[in-house]
Amino acid sequence: THRGEAAQAHLALVRARDLLVRTRTALLQHVRGTLKTIAIKVPSCGTGTFHRVAGEYVTEALKPALEPILDTLAEIEWKIRAFDRQISELARTTYPAAARLKKIGSVGPLTSVAFVLTVDDPRRFRRSRAVGPWLGLVPRIEESGDQSPQLSISKTGDTYLCRILIQCAQHLLGPFGKDCALRRFGLRLCERGGKAARKRAATAVARKL
């Protein structure tokens, strides 16, 4: 069953925002890298103010190359904020399920709307535990004889929704995450040690989200 036209248009809104965010990251890294070649390091700052901060460090020789990019960054930032307002309005007025999901720690309007639109009809799943494997948030298993070793997560589902759920999980496990049973669950997994413990914990928390 395909999504309705309205739902598809709203999902396109979410994906368009993601494209702008990835474009902003690429342009920002280009400016930092270009300035670094002449031994100029832009101080740490938020993405929303980077175009203004970096503009103070651009030399006269680099202005023809970098000023158009900084202007583009400023315009992209304005458009991303406009998308954020539209998505917040969708969560508030159009999708009541998204409004309920926002009550979960570290889940905002973007994640809740993206989840509702991607899952679409939850009745397709016989139980809630099936959503995690559907998104690819479970380990691959290589069956060979009597052994079935677990490999890395399959990543076979919707890559965008997977990514933002992982980001929510990382925020929940970080210093600014609110205390809750899910955070404590993830922190217990982190304590098990190993270089990949944090990644495994974030994936497990994302699956529970």
Largest sheet: 2 strands, antiparallel
The number of helical segments is 9
Assign a percent range to the helix content. Answer: 55-70%
The order of strands across the largest sheet is 1-2
- The dominant shape is globular
- Compressed to H and E, one letter per element, the order equals HHHHHHEEHHH
Strand fraction equals under 5%
Which radius of gyration do the C-alpha atoms yield? 21 Å
Question: What's a concise summary of this model?
Answer:
The chain has 9 helices and 2 strands. It is mainly alpha-helical. β1 and β2 form a beta hairpin.
Structural commentary:
There is one protein chain. The chain contains nine helices and two strands; from the N terminus they run H-H-H-H-H-H-E-E-H-H-H. The model has no long low-confidence stretch (mean pLDDT 89). Helix 1 (5-36) packs antiparallel against helix 3 (63-93), helix 1 packs across helix 5 (109-119) and helix 3 (63-93) packs across helix 5. It has helices spanning 5-36, 50-55, 63-93, 96-101, 109-119, 131-135, 159-173, 181-190, 197-208; strands at 139-141, 150-153. With 209 residues, it is mainly alpha-helical. The protein has a two-stranded antiparallel ribbon. The longest helix has 32 residues, at 5-36. The radius of gyration is 21 Å and the shape is globular. Helices cover 61% and strands 3% of the residues.
